[in-house]
Specification:
Blueprint lengths: L4 E4 L5 H17 L3 E5 L1 H5 L1 H7 L5 E4 L3 H10 L3 E4 L6 H4 L7 E6 L11 H15 L4 E7 L11 E3 L11 H11 L7 E6 L8 H13 L4 E6 L7 H13 L3 E5 L5 H9 L3 E5 L7 H9 L2 E5 L2 H6 L6 E3 L4 H13 L12 H8 L3
Parallel strand pairs: 1-2, 1-4, 2-3, 4-5, 5-6, 6-7, 8-9, 8-11, 9-10, 11-12, 12-13
Helix pairs in contact: 1-3, 1-14, 8-9, 8-13, 10-11
């Protein structure tokens, strides 16, 4: 019989709650006892009800990681931390006797060049956790790496609302649903749209392509960060005057909806100021949607299985050339994603 688990996830962020949901599903299948530990604010958030409410999980509320850890020890539970990156320093003070499994979403070495001091401190904190006899560190890795993962990796689960085989037949309906004009080559930025995804750069790239005679559209699927929303809207207005078709959806998307949105695109453009792989490019890879990767050499290497074309130049000209290359490239073959149980079993320590 499996040991009882306490999942500690204080954030109501939908992506993290999806991970939590998969652990609840898997424990239900295996007959294991599982409790969700969170904050009262997260428990009251509508995202919690949306993702976990239908499962009716047992819950306990805490105000800190240490409080959750002490509760896990008192109940004889293994503490599962789904977003250990921002809790790694708290976790170095875990109480004696605790069994813990901690997910690190961004490896310290991925950010070493951009934030050397912070990355080094994080690396040392993770190493100090790893030497604890009853603490296991796992690293989130792209699902496309499944054949290469080690025992310390947990493949990022990919959820698709349509099968890879019916993408083409549903494409007209998807584009009608998202108000995407037929006859355009559609580029897109997907997910939480913050400055590190360089949406304005991608929009200006679309404008450049339109001015060169290409019939092109730009789709934004996801909530735009408040501090950049006015500049992004101004760029969209300018691009529309240059002949770019616009499809704007400034709202939260479920994981399943994001899959459908990515399937509606001709090219997903990932022009990121980050070195870590991301789940949107993984979805595109599994759906057979072309992907442009633009950014640092580390970013391009970490996501190398995803890209149709790449550039290290985060400029309109550099991204534009990569987009042209992707458009002219042969269609991609969709890759069936691994089942979410691969992730859940690693996190629960049963694989």
């Amino acid at each position: 019989m499996l040991e009882p688990y306490l999942i500690w996830e204080p954030s109501p962020d939908g992506h993290r709650l999806v991970y939590c949901r998969e652990l609840l599903y898997r424990c239900s299948e295996l007959g294991a006892t599982i409790t969700v530990g969170t904050t009262q604010d997260a428990l009251d958030d509508k995202q919690f009800g949306l993702h976990l409410g239908p499962l009716g999980p047992q819950t306990r509320t805490f105000t800190s990681t240490i409080e959750a850890a002490r509760s896990a020890v008192a109940h004889g539970e293994t503490l599962v931390v789904l977003s250990g990156d921002d809790k790694v320093f708290e976790l170095t003070h875990l109480p004696r006797g605790l069994r813990a499994r901690v997910l690190i979403m961004s490896r310290p070495e991925w950010t070493l060049k951009r934030r050397p001091l912070r990355s080094l401190v994080k690396f040392l904190a993770v190493r100090s956790l790893a030497v604890r006899s009853r603490t296991d560190i796992l690293y989130l890795c792209p699902s496309a790496w499944l054949s290469d993962v080690g025992l310390s990796d947990a493949p990022d689960p990919v959820f698709l609302s349509l099968s890879t085989s019916d993408k083409d037949c549903r494409l007209p309906a998807l584009r009608a649903q998202y108000r995407m004009s037929p006859g355009c080559t559609w580029l897109g930025v997907v997910g939480g749209i913050s400055g590190h995804k360089n949406p304005s750069l991608v929009i200006r790239t679309a404008a450049l392509l339109a001015e060169s005679g290409l019939s092109v559209g730009i789709a934004l699927f996801g909530p735009i960060a408040p501090r950049i929303v006015s500049s992004v809207l101004a760029e969209l207005d300018s691009a529309e005057r240059s002949g770019v078709c616009i499809s704007l959806h400034n709202r939260r998307f479920t994981n399943e909806e994001l899959g459908a949105a990515i399937a509606s695109l001709d090219v997903l453009v990932c022009a990121y100021d980050t070195d870590a792989p991301n789940s949107t490019s993984a979805k595109a890879y599994h759906l057979g949607t072309k992907v442009v990767g633009a950014g640092s050499p580390t970013f391009l290497t970490n996501g190398q299985k995803f890209w149709t074309s790449t550039t290290v130049e985060l400029t309109v000209e550099g991204v534009g050339n990569a987009v042209r290359e992707a458009i002219s490239a042969p269609s991609r073959v969709a890759q069936t994603p691994p089942p979410p149980t691969e992730f859940a079993d690693r996190m629960l320590g049963i694989a």
